[in-house]
Amino acid sequence: MFMETGDALESSSNPHSQPALPKITEEKRMINVSMLQEILQNFVSGTSNVQGAALVSPDGLALASVLPTDMDEDRTAAMSAAMLSLGERIGSELVRGTIDRIVVEGEKGFGVVVSCGPEAVLLVLSSAAAKQGLLFLEIKRAVAQIAPLVA
User: How far is it, in rounded angstroms, from Cα 51 to Cα 71?
Assistant: First the structure.
């Protein structure tokens, strides 16, 4: 009834034999942080009036960021995720449908939070001189580059 070690080897080398238990593997893609960092760096340096950007997980952990030196990355990441989560809840309660973006406008500029799919949230910081339409267009382009990398 029990297979000897030799029998197990012999049956496993037989091309017609079936394994006793199926091998289950979970495939998880690794996020390429250096590529995300490069995209954010190019976005911040190549887009006028953009002062910083951070890509965070939905639970508030920083994946990549290019932020002003006086900003705490961990705190900013947590607030960005919380903003999107709360914004989505408010949009649902007010029957506004899917939220495209959340904009915080202050005297020094804008903070824009957008979803990059279920795995990431993008925060963009810009000066008050930024033209919102152009800023939103550039953010959309950045999201198009980022989303496939975090999906």
Answer: 11
Contacts of 48 (CB under 8 A, 6+ apart): 130
Give the tokens for residue 107.
């005297």
Query: pLDDT by residue (tens digit) across 3-38?
Result: 444 444 444 555 565 556 555 554 445 668 889 999
Three-class DSSP labels, 16-84: CCCCCCCCCCCCCCCCCHHHHHHHHHHHHHHCCCEEEEEEECCCCCEEEEECCCCCCHHHHHHHHHHHH
* pLDDT tens track for 39-75: 999 999 999 999 999 999 999 999 999 999 999 999 9
